[in-house]
Input
Amino acid sequence: MTKETPKEQQVTLRARRVGKVMAFGFMLWMALQWLGGRLELPVKWSLALDFLALLAFMWAIYELWQIWRITRQN
Output
């Protein structure tokens, strides 16, 4: 097994963080949408949750782009 360089370790950690944020964001969004329907929350709360989930996914896309740029430098 080869030892990872510091750059490879950074990429690995960032990719794991992105994966965790995407998975957690999706699960939390689904759970809160279900809960909002059960509690009959106003639509404005549902829209706010949608925007928060969208922000999390936009951050993930930005991070993935940064990871891609780091790996393309060599």
